[in-house]
Amino acid sequence: MIIISSFPYMVSDKSNRPSTLLWSGGRVVVKQKAAQMWCLMRLIFIMLGNVIPTGNDHWQLLLHLREICDVATSPVHTPDTLIYLEDTVFDFLDLYKTLYPLEKLTPKMHYLQHYSRQIERFGPLCNCWTLRYEAKHSVFKTLVRFYPEYEKPCIYANHKAPT
Length: 163
What we know:
Layout lengths: L1 H5 L4 H4 L7 E3 L2 E3 L4 H15 L8 H16 L6 H21 L7 H5 L3 H8 L8 H16 L6 H8 L3
Antiparallel strand pairs: 1-2
């Protein structure tokens, strides 16, 4: 999409600029790395907000997902925010089932229902997210993809892992 490629990203977002979205079989294919997806999720509302008609249910679904991301990654929680998170997750899943009745919920979508209890039990989820792991893991995925004859990627990873 032209909007994504021509968007004026800030310096902090340029390294995680989302890849272009592709069309395949009448559907949008979103092939992003974790940091690119996080950047896209934060900025898509600024990129497309003025071209989406008011009351669009698909846009509402994305807004619910954004609310879930914002609350789940917040460093501070109160009992009220946890109740709000539960309600927002319920609304998101309900709207998803309404908009896509033939699609099954993915395990990740199911896990959203447990976020408020996990926050109560373990504290803010931003303290235990895996975005840094994803970045380091992508180095080894690239290594194995480009050097398939490489026999011992685990030994290489053990000795050459970035710190």
